[in-house]
Amino acid sequence: MKITVLGASGGTGTKVVELAREAGHEVTAIVRTRNGRDTVADVMDPDSIGPHLAGADAVVSAIGTRAARKPTSVQTDSTKSVITAMRAHDVRRLVVVSNSGMVTDGDDPFSRYLVKPILRQVLKHPWGDMARMEDVVRASGLEWTIVRPPQLTDGPRTDAFRTAVDTNVRGGMRVSRADLASLVLRCLVDPGSVGRAISVAD
């Protein structure tokens, strides 16, 4: 499979590229800053990233933002750009990494009434950006999957993670970036994940 990964220099993107190449996929890794190894392109410009999406079987967006306390639209704007470029080059399959924290858990009172309200205030800007990004993905008309991890760690790949469809994993507090990347690659080849939000946790 030919896969283009955006946000390839971040913690999650690096793992996605690593595992995809280990599995024998042909990977184009898109980064912002030249490193002598990956492809440099401006994710906010569809004309810049378009040639690197052409011919791909799938696109993975692991783009994140570091602006925790300031208004941001990095994920929303970059996703709009990616979708525009995918349409222009007739690429249909898209997997994006979001987060499970912004999703309210209806069956977990501790999380619903104590933890989430606090985090929603602290992380309102990046979570708001991710929520808008998800809306853009759903309206794209593409074959999309949204992957929602909780807190990310640098732990090893175990493939022992739990998943839940269109809801959070009950009691799921963290997952390693390696396991998150493993799930992303599974989703790429799983037609049952199309049009779904998949949460993942240890």
Automatic annotation (TrEMBL):
SUPFAM superfamilies: NAD(P)-binding Rossmann-fold domains. The lineage of its organism: Bacteria, Bacillati, Actinomycetota, Actinomycetes, Pseudonocardiales. Residues 7-191 form the NAD(P)-binding domain. This is Putative NADH-flavin reductase. InterPro entries: NAD(P)-bd_dom (IPR016040), NAD(P)-bd_dom_sf (IPR036291). Pfam families: NAD_binding_10 (PF13460).
